[in-house]
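My current task is to audit a protein record that another person submitted. Please read both lines and tell me whether the tokens look consistent with the sequence. Do not assume that whoever made the record got everything right. I have pasted the whole thing underneath without changing anything:

===
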Amino acid sequence: MATQRKKFNRIKIVLLEKEKTSVWLAETLGLSATAVSKWCTNRNQPTVETLFKIAEVLEVEVCELLVTAKK
């Protein structure tokens, strides 16, 4: 039986919590909306450097943007 894994995306969740949009994040970081959209849909991941920039503009700790693996 195949196990279905739920895909959580902390960047998307924090954006919702902060009442911000992915377009706002893209404009704030000077990046394309497509790049941010890919992060929010788990099709791509930001670099570590960009992750720190995201945390800074969202005023959160970097660890709040990461999903921990629970076994």
